[in-house]
Specification:
The structure holds 2 protein chains of 2 kinds. The longest helix of chain A has about 40 residues. Chain A is an all-alpha fold. Chain A contains 12 helices and 2 strands; from the N terminus they run ααααββαααααααα. In chain A, strands 1-2 form a two-stranded antiparallel sheet. Chain B is an all-alpha fold. The chains are: A mainly alpha, B mainly alpha. At the A-B interface, helix 1, helix 6, helix 7, helix 10 and helix 11 of A face helix 3, helix 4, helix 8 and helix 10 of B.
Chain lengths: ~325, ~280
């Protein structure tokens, strides 16, 4: 187990190094370049100044040398300066990562709880009208464009009924918990609704499979109560395939969070990445994209470890 | 199975036949009429007009043409690329297989939308794309198709690889091999037909995914660019008018939703039919 975790961590590190290079190259291919932006900001700048600036920032170096210089600095904890926030990249990233983890974490827990309930209920009566209705709802959830769902929720609950705020994380000047929670309702609802459909389909399929197994019949024959059969015997074995799928879905959760955060002007990592890319903030975009990748891969690892905890037959090698 | 298919076919038919028909009836889809902005649904504008006084119904149909073209083109291209990767990895095995499948797993687990936003924002001039192509009106459409293929080939690759692994040791493949058939021949005539059914299902399902992807990128301003319009760009324009003209945001979203759910339900029905047939054979 320790060996497995160690190997996986080394693998993650290797992927992060590879991704950092790929992203570094891609960011360099985006429109505009930082020196041009500086020149536009200061019309008195001469050609000699530009050349000197290029040397100072190392833009005259070959691509790989520039990447190594960036990587060296990043490893020493210096991710550079964000143009958009006029602050070091770290101080822009950390609070937004926290906000995103709060949004994604609460949506994930809610969506999983809903999926376990609905999926199990549907799997107990396969082919019934209830099962068909759940199935149709799942397809509706999977087929709904997340940004449109957000737009419709804003239209009804913020613009129409005026019950909930449509954007931001808190009312200016207020800092109590209730206000924060009220601002979370619509973003969390959007991301939860967007993920529940897919999760429910996986739970339903896995539960249907699990309920046909011999040990379920044995448990029933022993006289175990229905709730014990479902919760203790079937759910436990159904969770194994579900965990695998969930591990692969974290990337999708990050993508969903990007759309949701952008729609609700919620200051999280997703909106940060979008703003950084659109605003040509190279340092920030690079660091934020890498952080999103690392977070996703660590979540995958956590799911892999949970897999072994759920299924005693699994041994890590 | 009939319902979703008919819905999908109806959307496709009106999207492709509607604009020429509208033109024949004298409705010009690009006619700007600033005196008739944001009109409600009434003849001759059955769904009203947008912020520039253009006919909403016509624009919905034209947008549908763009969205459907991208969805189908990208799904087919992704299936082709994925099939190639899957066949090669599954048949050759060993190192080739391990490297290719690692890559596939890696792509599936990545946070794709943030990375796609960077890719969609790339400056084509820095990539040495021929100017004729880079400046053409269709470049945003081609770009989206390429991006969608980049992220959606993995499903087909995994599927085809799995089926190839199962099939390659069957007796008829060994017989073909012992008769001296080359690898391309074996892959094409003996292995591919055996994976066709699940591949068609996966391709149908990915049409919906691609349309969703196109709509979100276009909505964020990184997808389809004027003069082309898709449902996503229409929603992007409508967002600013959400309080004054909410219906403008309702229609394109509903079209995306209907098209994607029809594609998904149709794919699911195909899958069930295949499963039933496999169960009957076993």
């Amino acid at each position: 187990m320790i060996r497995f975790t160690a190997i996986r961590l080394v693998e993650i590190a290797a992927v992060v190094v590879l991704m950092s290079f790929v992203i570094y190259v891609l960011i360099g291919l985006m429109p505009g370049d930082p020196i041009d932006l500086m020149r536009q900001a200061d019309p008195r700048m001469s050609a000699a100044d530009v050349a000197r600036l290029k040397a100072v920032y190392g833009v005259d170096q070959p691509l790989f040398a520039r990447y190594l210089a960036w990587a060296g600095q990043a490893l020493s904890g210096d991710l550079g300066y964000s143009r958009l926030f006029a602050a070091p990249v770290w101080s822009a990233l950390v609070p937004r990562l926290g906000n995103s983890l709060l949004l994604m974490g609460s949506s994930f827990v809610l969506a999983l709880a809903l999926a376990l309930g609905l999926g199990t209920a549907a799997a107990r009566r396969p082919g019934s009208r209830f099962d068909a209705a759940i199935n149709l709802c799942c397809f509706a959830g999977v087929s709904m464009p997340t940004f449109w769902l957000a737009l419709m929720l804003i239209l009804v609950f913020a613009a129409g009924l005026g019950w909930l705020p449509a954007s931001g994380i808190a009312t200016a000047g207020m800092s109590n918990l209730g206000d924060r929670l009220v601002h979370l309702v619509l973003p969390v609802a959007t991301l939860t609704l967007a993920s529940t459909g897919g999760y429910t389909r996986y739970v339903r399929a896995a539960m249907k499979e699990a309920l046909l197994q011999d040990h379920i019949r044995t448990a029933r024959a022993k006289g175990a109560s229905e709730s014990r059969v479902i919760l203790h015997h079937a759910l436990r074995s159904a969770m194994i395939p579900v965990t695998t799928i969930l591990a692969l879905s974290f990337g999708g959760l990050v993508s969903g969070a990007l759309v949701t955060e952008t729609m609700f002007a919620y200051p999280g990592m997703g909106k940060l990445i979008f703003d950084a890319v659109m605003g040509n903030d190279y340092n920030l975009a690079l660091a934020a994209l890498l952080l999103a990748t690392v977070t996703t891969m660590l979540a995958n690892l956590a799911a892999d470890l949970a897999y072994g905890w759920l299924d005693p037959r699994v041994t890590y090698r | 199975m009939r319902g979703p298919f008919l819905l999908l076919a109806a959307i496709a038919v009106v999207s492709f036949a509607g604009p020429p028909l509208g033109a024949a009836l004298g409705i010009d889809l690009n006619a700007v009429d600033l005196t008739d902005r944001l009109a409600g649904p009434s003849p001759p504008h059955l769904l009203g007009t947008d912020e520039l006084g253009r006919d909403v119904l016509m624009r919905l149909l034209v947008g549908g043409r763009v969205s459907l073209t991208i969805g189908i083109a990208a799904a087919l291209a992704a299936a082709a690329l994925g099939t190639l990767v899957g066949l090669v990895a599954g048949y050759l095995g060993g190192w080739t297989d391990r490297v290719m499948m690692r890559l596939t797993d890696g792509i599936i687990a990545l946070p794709l939308l943030p990375l796609l936003i960077v890719l969609a924002a790339l400056d084509l001039r820095k990539l040495d794309v021929p100017p004729v192509l880079a400046q053409s009106d269709d470049i945003s459409l081609i770009r989206i198709v390429v991006l969608a293929v980049l992220v959606s080939w993995t499903t087909a690759a995994r599927l085809v690889r799995g089926a190839t692994l199962v099939t390659r040791n069957r007796d008829f493949v060994r017989a073909a091999k012992s008769l001296g058939a080359g690898i391309p021949h074996i892959l094409w005539t003996h292995i591919l037909p055996n994976v066709l059914a699940p591949l068609i299902v996966a391709t149908t399902l990915s049409v919906g995914d691609v349309i969703l992807l196109e709509s979100v990128l276009s909505f964020l301003g990184l997808g389809i660019q004027p003069p082309l319009a898709s449902w996503g760009t229409m929603l992007s324009n409508a967002q600013e008018l959400i309080t004054s003209a909410p219906l403008l945001a309702l229609y394109p979203g509903a079209m995306i939703f209907l098209t994607v759910i029809a594609a998904n339900l149709f794919g699911d029905a195909l899958q069930q039919r295949i499963d039933r047939r496999a169960a009957a054979r076993a």
